[in-house]
Design brief:
With 410 residues, the protein is mainly alpha-helical. The chain has helices spanning 3-34, 42-70, 72-92, 96-108, 112-121, 125-179, 200-204, 207-238, 246-269, 273-293, 298-326, 332-381, 390-403. Helix 10 (273-293) runs antiparallel to helix 11. The two termini are 22 Å apart.
Length: 410
């Protein structure tokens, strides 16, 4: 990448990071905080945690399409203002309904697709994959850092303070967008990064892409629902308040990342993608089941959490790669747009149904729900064909371009 491309990818990755930090910091502390809100019930707590995903999933593709007409930076700014406004509403709310409204408005700032389209606008095709990878790594780091920082900030400023901080970070994101991100010379439809309505039917008929859409939906439903129950388990087993949970999350996440890296290398470089993929889903199912039935066995809880996050982070890395391999070359952006929308719908469903499970069966009810989701996903994934290696896929795409005179029509 040249200097301009590095600046574009780095600054847009930073916009992603500041936006996601606040969102992820809420996860480990929200359940305990929400119980003190007026009108709170386990069902409404779950709904409030997952509500962000509903509007995010509904508006992700429309935001991207609108940015083709009115401009990427304008839509990113509008989206971040909506996100900041929702954060302020949630910070000031004294009732669970108020927080629910704030979370819905946060999700309305659905700028993820626009940011990726702008990355594509500002990079050459030969370095675009590297730029997208920079953004992807930033998202993963933001998740790990935020899960550790959430309990620490909660001890200092509380959950309302985290919502205020989230609003401030959204404004920082606007500053980066307007001040540091280069202006593209012209806007064009980036089929590698954007959804194209004319291709929806084609992508939705693809069995393998639908299998992967179900995967990301299930993964984030499991994650969101689990964060309604994990704090309950940690408090029961270790007697920790939310302010001290970072002392558990930090070593757990560090070890999980150390386990995730060789798993992804084994999948990507040694042609074992399907084996690692299936194993990761099975590990997810086993760990959430173990968390539900560990009782007060602290060793089982810690080992289960390490393996849970290792499997989760591995799937987060592998699923986009698999979508890229199975998607037709001229419909990758459309496939990724539908995939992203299903991810956010998974957040919503995980929070909503997880809240129902929490009200009916407590933490164990939540983990039984997530176990069933994981087993259902495993059953569908077993039939997945062995994907082509990344190198084979890239070679095939290059040959196809050459045969058609080079390049995808914009």
């Amino acid at each position: 990448m040249n200097e301009s491309e590095r600046r574009a990818a780095g600054s847009l990755a930073a916009v992603f990071a500041v936006r996601l930090l606040g969102l992820f910091m809420i996860y480990p502390v929200f359940e305990a905080y929400a119980h003190g809100l007026r009108g709170a019930t386990p069902m409404l707590i779950g709904l409030a945690l997952g509500a962000y995903g509903l509007t995010q999933g509904l508006l992700q593709i429309p935001f991207g399409l609108l940015s083709d007409r009115v401009g990427r930076k304008i839509m990113i700014t509008i989206g971040l203002l909506l996100f900041a406004g929702g954060s302020v509403i949630a910070a000031r709310a004294g009732s669970i309904e108020g927080v629910l409204l704030g979370r819905i408005l946060q999700g309305a700032g659905a700028v993820g697709s626009v940011i990726l389209a702008l990355v594509a606008d500002l990079t050459r095709p030969e370095v675009r994959t590297r730029a997208m990878a920079m953004v992807g790594v930033t998202i993963g780091l933001a998740f790990v850092v935020a899960i550790v920082l959430g309990p620490i900030f909660n001890a200092v400023i509380g959950v309302p303070g985290i919502f205020w901080l989230t609003a401030l970070l959204a404004l920082v994101g606007i500053g980066i967008t307007l001040g540091a991100v280069p202006q593209p010379e012209q806007l064009s439809v980036q089929r590698e990064a954007e959804a194209v309505p004319q291709l929806f039917a084609r992508v939705l008929k693809d069995r393998e892409l639908l299998r992967l859409d179900l995967g990301i939906f299930s993964l984030h439903a499991i994650l969101t629902a689990s964060f309604l129950a994990v704090p309950v388990v940690l408090a029961a087993v270790f007697g920790t308040g939310t302010s001290r949970e970072w002392m558990i999350y930090l070593p757990v996440l560090v070890v999980s990342v150390a386990l995730m890296v060789p798993a992804v290398i084994l999948a990507e470089r040694h042609g074992m993608m399907k084996q690692v993929f299936i194993t990761a889903i099975a590990v997810l199912a086993a760990t959430v089941f173990a968390l539900g039935f560990a009782g007060r066995n602290g060793v089982v809880v810690i080992v289960a959490l390490v393996l849970f996050f290792a499997a989760f982070n591995s799937m987060e890395a592998m699923l986009p790669s698999l979508v890229s391999r199975f998607a037709p070359p001229d419909a990758k952006g459309t496939a990724m747009g539908i995939y992203s929308s299903l991810q956010f719908f998974g957040i919503f469903v995980g929070g909503a149904i997880g809240g129902v499970a929490l009200s009916l069966g407590g933490a164990r009810g939540v983990f039984l729900f997530t176990t069933l989701v994981a087993l259902g996903w495993l059953a569908t994934a077993l039939a997945m064909p062995r994907p082509a290696s990344a190198r084979t896929r890239q070679g095939g795409a290059a040959e196809a371009e050459e045969a058609h005179g080079g390049g995808v029509a914009r």
